[in-house]
Specification:
Quinone Oxidoreductase, Chain A, domain 1, 6-stranded parallel sheet, Rossmann fold, 7-stranded mixed sheet, 425 residues, 27% helix
């Protein structure tokens, strides 16, 4: 569903009306082609040949993608539930690769270097980037629609609709990376593509959730409930334990994913079999009951009630907030609710009274990848964190549509896949 179906007609010509410090559309090679996954319609993705991107700004790099993947947030695009998706758009915001070419102003990288690409496109120069708030970058998203809807615009994101800048995504064999000095992280040879790719998004997003919740071993921040046992939810749970949480409960209904949560030391809670509120009160009886921190890793597309399913189906709202409401109900008084699942527009029946009367702190937002990734790379490189617990499948690039379908249907125990390209070793 499109956001504008709910709020009414948008003013015309809002796409691309905000000035940016870099072209959002790459110059294309007139002769050379690359393989890429293009969008043709709801649940219709096709691997095609398309013109290769070229250096379009002196701070660009061209990267040969060796591995990419499918993110849970890509499924919102797959179902065409994010505004301003166009036919032939290339999705994808997670990848690792090898630098093929650099622009004249790329100073800290070189051709032939292995790198991970940040999902978030920061300029590195605006006030927000200087504060390491990269997902709020002022100069990489040209969407006037977002400014109209939200009052401000966020950073651009690779392959995530024209609402987020209209950049070509990373589910391709060749990609242009703007502001390469900021948005590429060199990978040591000791870190595989499969382990490095989590630094594009999910490892950093999971860390972002526990960082916003200030999870630690300290009393009042050491009990955590995570809604959603997908890749981000499992990463958040794993990082919560790493930061000293004494108990982490992970809520889902997919048995294979709940078993992974158990395997890393968390308590699984199947919401189809147990009442979430009552069970969490039993697990966390202190201080009136409830976890100190509730982290929503689910987002707007998954309704637990018929009420929000019907309202979304009738275009009466864009976002179901069953999970947010449950977080607010279950978290202890004066606790923290963190939203790192995606939300796009407007919702009904939001429990603002409970939020206010319980004295809750609400935090959320897109991840600050570049703020976290060097530290998390160190944890992976030293063996303190092994991300392989979320990586369940590998596909060749030509089978990306199959990877999407399997991931969407949550079949065959899939959690996170690695998609290899012709440049993979």
């Amino acid at each position: 569903m499109q956001v504008q179906n709910y709020i009414g007609s948008l003013p015309e010509k809002l796409v691309g009306t905000v000035p940016t410090a870099t072209p959002t559309v790459s110059i294309k090679d007139p002769i050379l082609k690359t393989r890429a996954l293009e969008f043709y319609g709801k649940k219709d993705l096709r691997v095609v040949d398309r013109p290769r991107p070229m250096i379009s700004h002196p701070k660009d790099a061209i990267v040969k993608i060796t591995a990419t993947t499918v993110c849970g947030s890509d499924l919102h695009l797959y179902h065409r539930q994010i505004p301003e998706i166009e036919k032939h758009d290339v999705f994808g915001h997670e990848a690792v690769g090898i630098i093929e070419q650099v622009g004249a102003e790329v100073t800290n990288l070189h051709v032939g270097q292995r790198v991970v690409i940040s999902a978030i496109i920061g300029c590195g120069e605006c006030w927000f980037c200087q504060q390491e708030l990269f997902s709020s970058c002022e100069t990489t998203n040209n969407s006037g629609t977002m400014t109209y809807l939200y009052g401000h615009h966020s950073a651009g994101i690779f392959g995530y609709s024209h609402l987020l800048g209209g950049y070509d995504g990373l589910q391709a064999e060749i990609a242009r990376v703007p502001f390469a000095n900021v948005n590429l992280l060199p990978l040591p040879d000791s870190v595989s593509d499969a382990h490095g790719i989590v630094l594009s998004d999910i490892a950093c997003t999971g860390w972002h959730g526990v960082d916003l919740g200030e999870v630690s071993s300290a009393e009042g921040r050491n009990t955590v409930a995570v809604w959603g046992a997908g890749p981000v939810g499992l990463m958040a749970a794993r990082w919560a334990l790493h930061r000293g949480a004494k108990k982490v409960v992970v809520i889902d209904t997919v048995a294979a994913r709940l078993e992974v949560a158990r395997s890393i030391g968390c308590v699984p809670l199947d919401f189809a079999k147990e009442d979430v509120y009552e069970t969490l009160m039993k697990h966390f009886p202190a201080n009136g009951g409830g976890p100190d921190v509730a982290i929503d890793c689910v987002g707007f597309r998954y309704n637990k009630s018929y009420l929000h399913a019907i309202q979304r189906g009738l275009n009466l709202e864009t976002d179901g907030v069953d999970v947010v409401a449950e977080c607010i109900k279950c978290v202890r008084k004066c606790g923290v609710v963190v939203l790192i699942g995606d939300y796009a527009g407007l919702a009904n029946q939001y429990p603002v009274g409970a939020q206010m009367e319980k004295g809750l702190t609400m935090r959320g937002g897109q991840v600050f990848v570049q703020k976290y990734w060097k530290h998390l790379l160190h944890l992976i490189e030293t063996g303190e964190m092994d991300p392989s617990f979320v990586i369940t499948h590998t596909f060749p690039f030509e089978e990306m549509p199959k990877a999407y379908a399997l991931f969407d249907e949550k079949k065959d125990g899939i959690i996170k896949c690695v998609v290899t390209t012709s440049y993979s070793k």
